[in-house]
Specification:
Nucleotidyltransferase, domain 5; 9 strands; 37% helix; 18% strand
Length: 297
């Protein structure tokens, strides 16, 4: 069998996270909603049909912008800032950059397919506090939440291939290869129970822990995750106190989304948002409250 034929039978997947799995501060107090501690935690996986094509397109786009005088004086484009000058990262990129990146991703069409698992950390907090009451010496480990979501997103991925190439964004400085291997084994067992057959077990997966600068396709995964995070995380207006969610970014890439599993919304095992059951603000957060009309004087 030729290398070209083998490549066609490989599934290329890129996994990254958004938000943080942290819940408590150093003294065990609830830290959700404080600076740097999100309400939701997301784990997303991007399937890329032609990785080389996406890598070339993203690199060319970034290099074109770096060479463009329009961006020359922008802080995020200064090499010493180690932001857009080195890699694309939705949180750090200028709005004009985001528009260009989203346009590029959308132009790839079905060559990109994204799925994610969403966790409401308030639900996890209540669960963890109950455990702590029952066993006072118990301490919450954020890594366990990550592993739980990894098992979920991998176990529900039903694509069949001769092999799977999985690139996972590195988390911190700890070596977690053993934990990832365990998550994969659990995910494969979940898959076999759900679908009634095996796709090769954990040995069918070749896993690489890496970073977005070295593995450019992770930069695309980051953009999908950022769009999802902007949809979920509430933004409070400083003057009016109005709570809003931004849906335009998610709407832009929705045709490329296979599934969003909201673990703690709706039924006991959560809600699956899919092309036939779209994730909208009304579906997730209910009708938008009507603004009160100001009385005529």
């Amino acid at each position: 069998m030729s290398d070209a034929k083998t490549d066609k039978d490989l599934c290329h997947l890129y996994v990254d996270e958004a938000g943080t799995p942290d819940i408590f501060d150093a003294k065990g107090r609830n830290n959700i909603g404080q600076q740097g501690c999100s309400r939701f935690f997301f784990l997303g996986m991007l399937e890329v049909h032609e990785p080389d094509k996406l890598i070339e397109a993203l690199r060319n786009l970034r290099e074109q912008m770096v060479a463009d005088p329009y961006f020359a004086s922008a802080e995020s484009f200064k090499p010493e800032r180690r932001k857009t000058a080195l890699l694309l990262h939705a949180k750090d990129d200028l709005p004009e950059v985001r528009v260009k990146v989203f346009d590029l991703l959308r132009s790839m069409g079905s060559a990109l397919r994204f799925r994610a698992v969403v966790c409401d950390k308030e639900v996890i907090r209540l669960r963890e506090e109950k455990k702590r009451e029952e066993a006072p010496g118990y301490r919450y480990n954020p890594d366990h939440l990550y592993d739980e979501l990894a098992r979920s997103v991998l176990g529900k991925f039903s694509r069949m291939a001769d092999g799977y190439r999985l690139w996972i964004a590195k988390r911190g400085s700890k070596d977690r290869n053993a934990a990832l291997r365990t998550a994969l084994e659990h995910a494969e067992a979940d898959f076999e129970r759900s679908f009634g057959f095996s796709r090769g077990g954990a040995d069918a997966w070749h896993t690489t822990v890496t970073n977005p600068r070295e593995t450019v396709c992770l930069q695309a995964a980051d953009y999908f995750l950022w769009a999802l995070q902007r949809f979920y995380e509430p933004r409070v207006h400083a003057q009016t106190g109005e709570v809003t969610h931004e849906e335009r970014y998610l709407n832009a890439v929705w045709p490329q989304i296979s599934q969003i599993h909201d673990l703690h919304f709706g039924r006991e095992h959560g809600t699956f948002f899919t092309p036939s059951n779209p994730l909208t603000l009304e579906a997730r957060f209910g009708p938008k409250p009507q603004k009160k009309k100001k009385p005529h004087v």
